[in-house]
Amino acid sequence: MPFIVSIVGRSGSGKTTLIEKLIRHFDEGGHKIAIIKHLRHDFDIDHPGKDTWRYRAAGCPGIAITNDRECALVERLDRPSGSVELALRFFGEYDIVLIEGDKEADVFKIEVVADSPEVPLCAAGTANIVALVSDNPVPGTLPRFARDDATGVGRFIENLLFETNR
After folding, report:
1. Over the chain, what is the mean pLDDT?
2. How far is Cα 146 from Cα 132, in angstroms, rounded to an integer?
3. How far apart are CA 125 and CA 137, in angstroms?
4. What percent of the chain has pLDDT over 90?
5. Residue 20 falls in which region: left (phi positive, over 0), alpha (psi -120 to 50) or beta
6. pLDDT recorded at residue 73
7. What burial letters (b/e) apply to 51-75, b meaning 16+ CB within 10 Å?
8. End-to-end alpha-carbon separation of the chain, Å?
9. Is residue 115 within 8 Å of residue 9, measured between CB atoms?
10. C-alpha pair distances (Å), 45 with each of 53, 56, 89
11. Are 131 and 110 in contact (CB under 8 A)?
12. If you compute the radius of gyration of the chain from its CA atoms, what whole number of angstroms results?
């Protein structure tokens, strides 16, 4: 079962940039990693007129496309499914799954705090935040990492993984 951590923060805070660096860190450490991007709005990866779009338009709820090296799966969910449920369903063979966003997920969270007039999520009541990534002081006692310290954040996640799996 994968260890799941959500990277949260306000829009434009640098979550994607941190995750890109964490991918390299975990890859160098030999961890098999997957990412789930959680959105609050609708999205469509298909294009009108293409075969897979036509299959969906015809009513097929599950479609995969592959070239024998990569694959993509589009599945219409018959009920709301959270990021954690999907991580367990699709990435059960992975070591670590990072979710970008999904501050409501019941997993450990690392918040990226940027220069913003908005209150950080950790001060706004978001649960399970265990560390912060910010170049500025943030009130509280949570461990804080500089924005360019992906190695430190990666090691922190690895320590959480080790502690949780004892």
Report:
1. 89
2. 9
3. 18
4. 58
5. alpha
6. 84
7. ebbebbeeeeeebeeeeeeeeeebe
8. 14
9. no
10. 9, 12, 20
11. yes
12. 18
Q: Where are the domains of the chain?
A: 3-42+83-164
DSSP conformational letter for 119: P
Residue 86 token pair: 């999907």
Yes or no: say if 63 and 73 are a contact pair by the CB < 8 Å rule: yes
CB distance 8 to 102 below 8 Å: yes
Both tokens of 129, joined, read: 């935040």
Q: CA–CA separation, 36 vs 101, rounded Å?
A: 9
- The bridge status of strand 108-112 relative to strand 3-8 is parallel
Q: Which DSSP symbol is given to 118?
A: S
The single residue listed with the structure tokens 């990534």 is: 133
Q: Please state the rounded mean pLDDT for residues 103-122.
A: 92
**What three-state secondary structure class fits 160?**
helix
Q: Structure tokens of 31? A: 């961890």
Q: What is the mean pLDDT of residues 138-156?
A: 94
Torsion on CA atoms 28, 31, 34, 35, rounded to nearest 10:
-60
Yes or no: domain 3-42+83-164 corresponds to CATH 3.40.50.300:
yes
**What is the pTM (predicted TM-score) of this model?**
0.88
Strands 108-112 and 33-37: unpaired
Q: How far apart are CA 71 and CA 140, in angstroms?
A: 43
